[in-house]
Amino acid sequence: MVVEISNFINNVFVPTSTRLESFDPSNGQLLCHVPDSDKKECDIAVEAAAQAFKSWSLTSHLERAKILNRIADEIEKNIDELAKAESQDQGKPLSVSTNFEIPRAAYNFRFFAAAILNHKNESTELPHLKSFNYTTEVPSGVAVLISPWNLPLYLLTWKIAPCIASGCTCVCKPSEFTSLTAFMLCDILLKAGLPPGVVNIVFGLGSKIGNELVTHPETKLISFTGGTVTGNIIRQATSKQPFKRLSLELGGKNPGIVFQDADLNKHIKAIGNSCFQNSGQICLCSSRYYVHVSRIKEFLDLLVNYARSLVVGSPFDSKTNMGPVVSRQHYDKVMSYINQAAKSGCQILCGETVDEKPAELNSNGYYILPTVITNLEDSSPLMQEEIFGPVVCVTTFHEEDEVIERANNNRYGLAATVWTKDVGQAHRVSRALLAGTTWVNCFLIRDLNMPFGGFKESGTGREGYPYSFEFFTEKKTICINYA
Fold first, then answer.
1. Are 113 and 73 in contact (CB under 8 A)?
2. Using CA atoms, how far apart are residues 21 and 19, in angstroms rounded to an integer?
């Protein structure tokens, strides 16, 4: 049955006259009709958010926290339904949706509910002037929250939770490729008692409604997660409105560095996950590995064996480790890089063009085998550009200084992984790498109290606590004289 999705504006479901088609990536069949919204819907949603801001911004921290926790309660009550929808819409294994991504969406609300109740202001005293100063944070206004297709509900709630905890209201624009769980979230917001207009969700093409939202005179903040090209479009679109605040979490071409003392047998699963988790469709994945020349054969043997051990299959098969990529368009993009590697003299050790796909895979699905490529120059597009699929490129290095320079020789700077037993080397290299997050002997361990964001063309700003609150509020100083 095809799901009919509607916009959610002022706590009312609002259909549109024209619709987009969204497909199940595991079989290519039509899954959803998504609203093809335009300026009219954007204007109505922003107005609803602006009106709601007048009262929501004055709501107590305690009341906001109660509502955020009720939203988390409702997500947890509906984990199975949300997980099934997420896997069908995006292609990730059901086990990942059930055990990781949907629980994280609930945790986002609980985390920021607790954070707003424990948030402290600053104060100073000037006894000789019989005065003291203290700070307070004032909600900034209506925010535009634009979320990507790779971790749909996880990253949408990562933006909504701190936004409304801070006292702001929002208009959300999920990806048109993965709209289903955002639509289901609307009903959860109603059940949790969120007042009308605090969260509005407008579906449609980014190229059509994105500009309407980010340039609207009533929107004060823009939080975007997605590609660097789109991030630059947002920068340019808002350049004539320089007082709008931007948080841009953009692309990554993340290096992994394996030193000669790395415990490969211990860490090969984590290394493999850093390459292929969510079919490589995580902006934090390590897609280019630099391996000390003395360990390259062992590394490649282990990584290829690991890649071939992954079960590529239906998201709903309990044995599946990797599902399809999200869309036909993205399938074609990833395959174009693999085909380029095959034509340019690179060596493809496993995966596409080398191994056969399982016979039981639906031939209309967007499945790509985990692929390991070697024999590349650092200047190769495969080493420089974000592929965003289950593809890892591997090369060698000799010296620490050399590999740091080569790892940093890229326009992105989102994340990195370092594999070594040498604690001094771990600290030294982590500091030298131009990356917002560096994991040492691990991958994707996240503490939401830590800043998250990138260097260079990987973005602007930081998310997490207290960084998200700093984004959504204006800090003011109040001075009291007690003479």
1. no
2. 7
Instruction: Quote the Cα angle for 34-367-270, to 5°.
Output: 105
Burial class of residue 424, CB neighbours in 10 A (0-12, 13-18, 19+) = exposed
Could you give the angle at which helices 296-309 and 264-276 cross, rounded to 10 degrees?
60
Task: List the structure tokens of 388.
Answer: 């965003």
Length of the chain: 483
* Type of residue found at 99: N
Put simply, whether the predicted model's pTM sits higher than 0.85 gets the answer: yes
What percent of the chain has pLDDT above 90? 100
Query: Over the stretch 129-150, which tens digit does the pLDDT of each residue have?
Result: 999 999 999 999 999 999 999 9
Q: How far, in Å, CA of 274 to CA of 116, rounded? A: 33
Helices vs strands, H then E, count in the chain: 16, 23
* E-assigned strand segments in 314-460: 347-350, 371-374, 391-397, 412-413, 415-419, 437-440, 455-456, 459-460
Measuring CA to CA, which residue among 16, 70, 50, 78 is closest to residue 196? 50
**H helix or E strand, kind and range, residue 23:** strand 19-23
What residues act catalytically?
A: 249, 283
Buried b (16+ CB within 10 A) or exposed e, 277-304: bbbbbbbbbbbbbbbbeebbeebbebbb
Residues 412-422 as b/e (b if ≥16 CB within 10 A, e otherwise) read bbbbbbbbbee
**In 316-354, which positions are buried (b, 16+ CB within 10 angstroms) versus exposed (e)?**
eeeebbbbbbbbeebbeebbebbeebeeeebebbbbbeb
Instruction: Give me the residue label for tokens 């965003």.
Output: 388
Which of 87, 56, 443 lies closest to 269, judged by CA?
443
